[in-house]
Amino acid sequence: MQEREVTRTVPQRLRAEGLVGLKACCKNERGPDIEGYLPRSRRKLFIEAKGERAGADRWGEGANCWMAMGEALLQVLSVYDQDVVCGIAVPYTKEFQKVLQNILPGFQKLGLHVLLVREGEVWHLGPHATGFFPEKSESLIEILEQ
Questions:
Q1: Looking at residue 125, what is its pLDDT?
Q2: 14: nearest Cα among 30, 31, 36
Q3: What is d(CA 73, CA 95) in angstroms, rounded to the nearest whole number?
Q4: pLDDT lower than 70: segments of the chain
Q5: CATH code of 139's domain
């Protein structure tokens, strides 16, 4: 699944749940890929999206996932603030799962949310998860508001 599909699926879900001022950027635009305001708390939400990349034959899909995650983390840290809800959205694949399992403690320390996209569904892995146990939730907004 490429980045454009991730940046299409997650905003559709957030829009349906009432994210205020939703803005989803195209690949060539500067700034977070997905942003808006959580309706109850009015806190700013920034989500950086990444997808599977071409060139897996050259470096291997695992290496591409590591590079994508590194880029996403740099982009999230550029807007990171304790008053902002930040997250990363990626395809729910075995390769991204392996990378996330290795760096999950750091994500949790930073309070980052992970959204995993597979077959039009969005799974959530929160900053307080006790291991890699993504969940499908009826309301992503409710989870992000916590």
A1: 95
A2: 36
A3: 17
A4: 26-28, 54-61
A5: 3.40.1350
φ, ψ dihedrals at 96, nearest 5°: -65, -35
Please tell me the predicted confidence (pLDDT) of residue 113. Answer: 96
- What is the pLDDT at residue 28? 67
Q: Would strands 121-125 and 135-136 be described as parallel, antiparallel, or unpaired?
A: antiparallel
pTM recorded for the entire structure: 0.91
- Domain tally for the chain? 1
Structure tokens at 122: 């969005």
Structural domain range at position 11: 3-145
Nearest to 87 by CA among 18, 145, 20, 26: 145
Q: Which two tokens stand for residue 132?
A: 């890699």
CA atoms within 13 A on the CB side of 131: 1
- Which residue type sits at 43? R
pLDDT reported for residue 30: 74
